[in-house]
TrEMBL record:
Pathway: Protein modification; protein ubiquitination. It is found in: Endomembrane system. One of its GO terms (molecular function) is zinc ion binding. The gene is LOC123188526. CDD domains: RING-H2_TUL1-like. Coiled coil: none annotated. This is RING-type E3 ubiquitin transferase. It comes from Triticum aestivum.
C-alpha cells in the first residue's frame, strides 16, 4: 500500500513538471481560469490567474534553497462572485468567513518541486449530512518553488494509509492546543464526534476539488496577523482559488472560492503559551504567600475554628483541577511539556501541601473534644475527611463531563467559594476570621486565569472572548470580597437588620460591687476598677470579670472562661 502511494506521488509530481513545459497540460492542471476572469477575480495584473504568472520567475528573490511552506496559514475565504451559485454538499451561511490551512511540505527528487499534504478548514459552513459550523477537507498536491505556485486536490485517504501530515499535526502546538481547548472549554461531546469525520470522503464521489494558489514571501513588519513577529522568521502569504467542478457534469458543487491566508509564527504562538504558564506559576507563588499569611493570622485553635472548611476545600478542588488540566496539556503538547508541567507542579504544591494542611488544621480546631481521643478514632475520622474531599474531586470531574454544555455556569458556581465563609460569619457572629490581604489577593488571583481564558481576545487557546461572562464573574467575586471586608471592619452581622437578629449576650453590663473588695483580672493579674465605664471591663456569663482587652485577646485563642473553663458566647 505504501509503495503504491509512493508511485502515485511520483506520478503526480511528474505530470505537474511536464505541465511546466507543455502549456496544454499546465492548463489542464490549472482550475477553470475563464470563470475567475468573468467574476473579476483576476482583473489585476500579476495575480495567480495571469496567463504568464505560472511561468514568471522572481529574479530578485532567487536563492540556492527553496522555500519551506510547512506551517499554519490563517486567513479568510470569500466567493469569487456575489453569492454561492450552488450548494449540493456545502451550505454557506455567509458569503465570506475564516479559514485555516495547515500544510506539510516535503522535497522530492525533482529540484524545486515539493510534495504537499494538509487540510483546509472552513468556518461559517454547514455540512448537510453532519450539520456543523466547520468543514474540514484533506488536500494533497505539489509546490513548484521557482514559480511560487501551489496546486492541490482533495484527498480522503481512502486507501487506509495514514497521511504524513498527521505526524506534523501531532507535534504542532497551534493545532494541539486548539484541540485541547475545544474539548475542555467549548465543544460538546456530540460536536467532538462530528469533527472526527472529513467531508472529502463523501464529496470525492461527486466533486473534483482543486486549489491553485501563489505563495509570496512578505515582510515581517506587515500587519494582518494576530501575532507579532520578531527576529528573522519567514512569513508567507497564500492567495488562490478553490473550485469544485462536478464529476458527472451536473454543474459545480459550490461556487469558486477565493482564499487569502497568511502564515502564523508558531514560535510566537509557542512563546505566548510559555508566557501563560509563567503567569500561572507567578499566581501560584502569590497564593502560597497569601495562604501563609492567612495561616499566621489564624494560628490559634479559636482562630482556625472561625474559618469555613468548605471555603478552603472548594479552593483546593479548584487548584487540583487546574493542576490536572495543565499536566494534561503538557502531555498532549510535548514541546510545551516543561512549561505546563512547571505550572502544574506549583498548583500541586498549593493544593496538596498548603491548602490540605490548612484544611486539616481547621478540621482539628472545629472538634477540640475529640482531638485528645485515641489514635484509631482520630485516624478513622481523618480517613472520612480525605475520602469526602477526593470523592467530591472525582465526582466533580464526572459532573463536568456529563454537563459539558453547561461548563461556564459550573465555573461560575465554583467561583462562589467565599459564600460559605460569609454565611458562617453571620451564623456564628465570628470576629475577623480572614486577613484582608488574603481576601483581596485570593479574589484577584483566582479570577485572573478565568479572565485570560475567556476574556483575552488573542489567548493562545483561541477561545472566543465572552465579555458578558467575564463581567459577571468579576462582579460576582467583587461583591463577595466586599461583603467579607464589611464583615471584617463593621462586624459579621452589619448588613443584617436588627429586628431579625437573635438576642446577643452583652459582656459590658453593669456590676454592683457590694463587698468593696478589689477584683483582680486572672489574665493580667492586675486590679479591675469597677467604677470606670463598663467598656473597660467584661463580665462573662459565669459572672467572672476581666479587662476588656485581656478577655478579647483570650477569646481569639480560646472561647473558654479562663477561670472555670466554661464555654463563652461570641462577643
Amino acid at each position: 500500500m505504501r509503495r503504491s502511494a509512493a508511485v502515485l506521488r511520483v506520478a503526480v509530481v511528474s505530470l505537474v513538471v511536464l505541465g511546466l513545459a507543455l502549456p496544454p497540460l499546465a492548463a489542464a492542471l490549472r482550475p477553470l481560469r475563464e470563470r475567475v476572469a468573468s467574476a473579476g477575480a483576476a482583473a489585476s495584473s500579476g495575480s495567480w490567474a495571469d496567463e504568464h504568472a505560472f511561468y514568471k520567475r522572481d529574479d530578485n528573490d532567487m536563492s540556492p534553497y527553496s522555500w519551506n511552506i510547512t506551517g499554519t496559514y490563517k486567513g479568510s475565504w470569500s466567493f469569487a462572485g456575489a453569492t454561492n451559485g450552488s450548494s449540493r454538499f456545502l451550505e454557506f451561511v455567509t458569503s465570506k468567513g475564516d479559514s485555516v490551512l495547515e500544510l506539510l511540505s516535503t522535497p522530492t527528487k525533482i529540484s524545486g518541486v515539493h510534495y504537499v499534504q494538509g487540510t483546509i478548514t472552513f468556518h461559517d459552513v454547514i455540512d448537510k449530512s453532519h450539520d456543523r459550523g466547520v468543514a474540514q477537507i484533506r488536500l494533497e498536491g505539489v509546490y513548484i518553488w521557482p514559480f511560487r505556485q501551489l496546486r492541490m486536490v482533495a484527498n480522503s485517504g481512502a486507501d487506509g494509509e495514514p497521511l504524513q501530515e498527521e505526524d506534523y499535526f501531532l507535534s504542532n502546538p497551534y493545532h494541539l492546543l486548539r484541540i485541547f481547548s475545544s474539548q475542555v472549554f467549548q465543544d460538546s461531546s456530540e460536536e467532538k464526534n462530528r469533527r472526527k469525520n472529513s467531508l472529502t470522503h463523501d464529496m470525492e464521489k461527486h466533486c473534483n476539488i482543486e486549489i491553485a494558489a501563489k505563495v509570496v514571501r512578505v515582510s515581517s513588519n506587515q500587519n494582518g496577523n494576530e501575532f507579532s513577529y520578531e527576529g528573522e522568521h519567514e512569513k508567507y502569504r497564500l492567495e488562490g482559488l478553490m473550485e469544485s467542478p462536478s464529476v458527472d457534469d451536473d454543474g459545480e458543487c459550490f461556487s469558486s472560492i477565493l482564499l487569502n491566508s497568511t502564515s502564523l509564527n508558531v514560535e510566537a504562538y509557542y512563546n505566548k503559551a510559555v508566557n501563560y504558564t509563567l503567569m500561572v506559576t507567578f499566581i501560584s507563588f502569590l497564593q502560597v504567600l497569601l495562604l501563609i499569611r492567612q495561616m499566621e493570622h489564624s494560628n490559634t485553635q479559636s482562630g482556625a475554628a472561625k474559618v469555613s472548611i468548605i471555603m478552603i476545600g472548594q479552593q483546593a478542588i479548584m487548584d487540583a483541577y487546574l493542576c490536572l488540566l495543565h499536566l494534561t496539556a503538557g502531555i498532549l503538547v510535548e514541546s510545551l511539556f516543561n512549561a505546563f508541567a512547571t505550572a502544574a507542579f506549583f498548583k500541586f504544591v498549593v493544593f496538596s501541601i498548603f491548602e490540605m494542611r490548612y484544611l486539616l488544621a481547621i478540621w482539628k480546631a472545629s472538634r477540640p473534644l475529640n482531638s485528645g481521643e485515641g489514635w484509631e478514632i482520630m485516624r478513622r475520622e481523618l480517613s472520612v475527611l480525605y475520602s469526602r474531599f477526593y470523592g467530591i474531586l472525582l465526582g466533580g470531574i464526572l459532573l463536568m463531563y456529563e454537563l459539558h454544555n453547561f461548563l461556564r455556569p459550573l465555573l461560575f458556581l465554583m467561583y462562589s467559594f467565599w459564600i460559605p465563609q460569609i454565611v458562617m460569619n453571620v451564623i456564628r457572629d465570628t470576629r475577623k476570621p480572614l486577613h484582608p490581604q488574603y481576601i483581596l489577593g485570593m479574589t484577584a488571583t483566582r479570577v485572573a486565569i478565568a479572565l485570560y481564558i475567556f476574556g483575552c481576545p488573542s489567548n493562545f487557546m483561541r477561545i472566543e472572548p465572552d465579555k458578558k461572562w467575564c463581567i459577571a464573574v468579576t462582579t460576582f467575586m467583587s461583591i463577595q470580597a466586599a461583603v467579607l471586608l464589611l464583615q471584617h471592619y463593621l462586624g459579621s452581622r452589619c448588613f443584617i437588620p436588627r429586628q431579625i437578629l437573635p438576642e446577643k449576650y452583652c459582656y459590658h453590663r453593669k456590676v454592683e460591687d457590694s463587698t468593696n473588695q478589689p477584683i483582680d483580672c486572672v489574665i493580667c493579674m492586675t486590679t479591675i476598677d469597677l467604677s470606670q465605664r463598663t467598656s473597660e471591663y467584661m463580665v462573662a456569663p459565669c459572672e467572672h470579670i476581666f479587662h476588656s482587652g485581656c478577655l478579647q485577646r483570650w477569646m481569639d485563642i480560646k472561647m473558654e472562661c479562663p477561670t472555670c473553663r466554661r464555654s463563652l458566647p461570641p462577643a
